[in-house]
From TrEMBL:
Phylogenetic lineage: Eukaryota, Viridiplantae, Streptophyta, Embryophyta, Tracheophyta
Top-level taxon: Eukaryota
Protein name listed in UniProt: Glucose-6-phosphate 1-epimerase
Gene Ontology molecular function: carbohydrate binding; glucose-6-phosphate 1-epimerase activity
GO biological processes: carbohydrate metabolic process
Organism: Gossypium lobatum
Pfam family name, one: Aldose_epim
Gene3D superfamilies for the chain: 2.70.98.10
Example of a GO cellular component annotation carried by this entry: cytoplasm
InterPro entries: Aldose_1/G6P_1-epimerase, Gal_mutarotase_sf_dom, GH-type_carb-bd
Amino acid sequence: MNQSGPAVEITKDRNGIHQVVLRNPRGASARVSLYGGQVLSWRTDRGEELLFASTKAIFKPPYAVRGGIPICFPQFGQRGSLEQHGFARNRIWIIDDNPPPLHPNDPSEKAYTDLLLKPSEDDMKIWPNR
């Protein structure tokens, strides 16, 4: 299967949340929501979905998405004083406009993007950067 569409594409879900779709030249893809920095889909070059997403998943803040590959930071579960799995999964991530370059020996067929989580003032009160 050949790649359809650009290697990196910015889209929106049905609630207006931005997503990044990454595709390799053979057609495999991954879809990452900027809400929580969460990988929502990972498809093989044959279009086979490799990740689970619950049919009960709510894709709208303030609810974390159920399924895929979530970011659990700075805690897992309720092992700390923060909300379940920490605050990172309930924040809007941004795309780094100036990412570091790939290593010169890396093949150029890779699709990539760097996501950043900028802490809010409230985040810094509960989890200060030290």
